[in-house]
Specification:
Order of helices and strands: EHEHEHHHEEHEEEEEHH
Largest sheet: 5 strands, mixed
Number of helices: 8
Radius of gyration: 17 Å
Low-confidence stretches: none
CATH topology of one domain: Purple Acid Phosphatase, chain A, domain 2
Strand content: 15-25%
Strand order of the largest sheet: 3-2-1-9-10
CATH architecture of one domain: 4-Layer Sandwich
Structural class: alpha/beta
């Protein structure tokens, strides 16, 4: 069985569609954050409903579903993003139905499942921490392993950082597929991972897609400029007003 693992869609429908149409898979797994920052949250939610086998909640899914302000959870490093993030969140709420809001509210905080005899544990961040907890990419393996102490699954799935990686944690493997909708590793192409349950092979991948319609609607709906900047460049600008 070939698994397609995605995360951090952020309302970028064209990026999501490009991945699921071009990458062959038997089951689609999503590590959270369907919404916020790009202008097609309703369509992304509907796509997830129809296509995803397993999914967990992301921090932005939670904020939108529970009428919270994104700025409530910002780290000090991103305090200057507060106004722009709150605008993106408010715009997202206006673009989704009440049914979709309930769907986001019902997403599980974490998810455990088995496919082809292989056990998986999925969490948008890490166990026993806030949905908004950001795991530093340079976290030592010893500390990273400690986060997953007591989790018996063979494959650990995570997201949130928008940067793809696969790491060995003892006899486990930790996979972060990066971000489909808003990569932040200076490569704007959608990022994803595939996992072959027969061979155990994990691959990280990127594909090209057309951003013209997303760009047009971002401008039309007056989304914060940082969304357009990240769409073009694959990382967040220092100034959220920069496009």
């Amino acid at each position: 069985m070939k698994l397609l693992i995605v995360s951090d869609i952020h309302g970028n429908l064209h990026a999501l569609e490009s991945v699921i149409k071009k990458v062959p898979y038997d089951a689609l797994i999503c590590c959270g954050d369907l919404v916020v920052d790009y202008p097609f949250p309703e369509q992304c939610i509907n796509t997830a409903k129809n296509a995803v086998t397993y999914i967990c909640s992301g921090n932005n899914d939670y904020v939108v579903a529970h009428d919270r302000k994104a700025s409530e959870f910002l780290r000090e490093k991103y305090a200057h993003y507060a106004e722009a993030l709150d605008r993106a969140t408010d715009l997202t709420r206006k673009l989704i139905t009440d049914e979709s809001k309930r769907y986001l509210a019902g997403l599980p905080r974490e998810c455990e499942f088995a496919l082809d005899g292989i056990s998986f544990y999925m969490n948008h961040t890490v166990p026993r921490m806030s949905l908004h907890h950001y795991l530093d990419l340079n976290t030592p393996l010893k500390e990273l392993t400690a986060y997953y102490e007591g989790i018996r699954a063979e494959v650990l799935l995570t997201g949130h950082t928008h940067v793809p990686y696969a790491k060995k944690l003892g006899n486990k493997i930790l996979v972060n597929p990066g971000s489909v909708g808003e990569p932040r590793d200076r490569d704007p192409r959608p990022s994803f991972a595939t996992f072959d349950t027969t061979t155990g092979q994990i691959q990280l991948g990127r594909i090209e897609y057309d951003t013209a319609e997303t760009t047009r609607v971002l401008k039309e709906l007056n989304f914060p400029n940082y969304s357009l900047f990240c769409l073009r460049n694959g990382y967040l600008p220092d100034d959220p007003g920069e496009a």
